[in-house]
Design goal:
Order of helices and strands: HHEEEEEEEEEEEEEEE
Number of strands: 15
Shape: elongated
Helix content: 10-25%
CATH topology: UDP N-Acetylglucosamine Acyltransferase, domain 1
CATH class: Mainly Beta
Structural class: alpha/beta
């Protein structure tokens, strides 16, 4: 997995979440969580009805994706769930801007992903732990400790296999 260059770890790229086609279950599941969270911030009957609608919508897309992205999970803009099947994200996890999570990934416990972190298919991150900005987690890696910014980790247990060159 090669990480795209030039993607910010601080400024969300909202175009990554834009729904362009009917069948984009990952983006629709993200939208349901965002709209639910927005409705919960408001008061009144319409806001309450809206939040209930988004709960049902989220349940639908979670079932389609066979994934758990809890309604209370905090994540910044630009999140990409490229193949959103079997993704399990603990409700206390925190996901930074412009992250990409592939299928069958588990964030167990309070895992904090920095900005622009790519998590390969089948990776398991067992928290509490923090992953630094611009890090790459290899496919099927089992991460049990903090990952420094710009590092690429792989293996069971995960170990740093490379680090970003300065200025990257």
């Amino acid at each position: 997995m090669v990480q795209e260059t030039g993607i910010s770890a601080t400024d969300p790229d909202w175009s990554r979440e834009k729904i362009d086609r009917f069948w984009e279950p990952g983006k629709k599941m993200i939208r349901a969580v965002r709209r639910y969270q927005a409705a919960r911030q408001k008061e009144g009957v319409l806001a309450k009805m809206s939040s209930k609608y988004w709960v049902v919508n989220h349940l639908w897309w979670s079932t389609i994706c066979q994934s758990e992205l809890h309604l209370t999970t905090e994540f910044d803009g630009g999140l990409r769930l490229t193949h959103p099947t079997g993704i399990i994200i603990h409700p206390e996890s925190r996901i930074g801007p412009n992250c990409m999570i592939f299928h069958q990934v588990t964030l167990a416990g309070p895992v904090t992903l920095g900005g622009h972190v790519d998590v390969g298919a089948g990776a398991k991150l067992i928290g509490p732990l923090t992953v630094g900005d611009h890090a790459v987690i290899g496919a099927n890696a089992v991460v049990t400790g903090d990952v420094p910014a710009g590092a690429t980790v792989a293996g069971i247990p995960a170990r740093v296999i490379s680090t970003a060159q300065s200025g990257a």
